Structure to design on (114 residues):
């Protein structure tokens, strides 16, 4: 069972940037469309960005023009560059396939606060 490992979160001021990373060892990584999800306190987990095996990206409206998802198939990694962060981006961020096929990792906490 593949379990992704996320990293790169932290505390950042509004307007700041973070780059999240995720490695999915033990998987036939390149065939899957991948996604970054987030779960804020008291809310359901939501899918915020996806990238197909060929690199086509889709974003939820709330992060468009601010977040960029990318992948490195050779390293089995997916990234999320987050710019112009807002307090409402505060959440635990997870990566998985775009359908949540794999076991969920621990996630990485992103806190946007002054």
């Amino acid at each position: 069972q593949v379990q992704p490992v996320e990293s790169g979160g932290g505390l950042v001021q509004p307007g700041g940037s973070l780059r999240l990373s995720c490695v999915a060892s033990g998987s036939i990584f390149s065939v899957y469309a991948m996604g970054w999800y987030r779960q804020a306190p008291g809310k359901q987990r939501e899918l915020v960005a996806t990238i197909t095996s060929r690199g086509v990206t889709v974003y939820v409206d709330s992060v468009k023009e601010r977040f960029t998802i990318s992948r490195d198939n050779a390293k089995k990694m997916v990234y999320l560059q987050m710019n112009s962060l807002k307090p409402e981006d505060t959440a635990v961020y997870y990566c998985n396939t775009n359908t949540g096929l794999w076991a969920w990792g621990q996630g990485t906490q992103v806190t946007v606060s002054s």
Remarks:
- DSSP finds no helices and ten strands in the chain.
- The chain has a mean pLDDT of 95.
- The radius of gyration is 13 Å.
